[in-house]
Specification:
Order of helices and strands: EHHEEHH
Structural class: alpha+beta
Strand content: 15-25%
Radius of gyration: 22 Å
Strand order of the largest sheet: 1-2-3
Low-confidence stretches: none
Shape: elongated
Length: 87
Amino acid sequence: MEVAQRFRPVSYLKANTADVARELQEESGAVVITQNGVPAFVCVSFEEYYRSQETNALLKLVNLGEKDKAAGKVTPLEQAKRDMEAG
């Protein structure tokens, strides 16, 4: 995972919100907003946020599948095909 390379103080965000928004739309990645020199929050474009939410959802599904597999809650492929054809 790439760590954000762009840090801006919250005062910069307050004075230059439109510039930060344009920067995020034109370049991928994130802008870390600091408060008193400490990272406080991260700004990303809507597209970047949406992609990360989709990725998180897919990872959760994979994790659930792995848990089901470990617990033996699986159906062999041929049986699943027969079940689908039957009804």
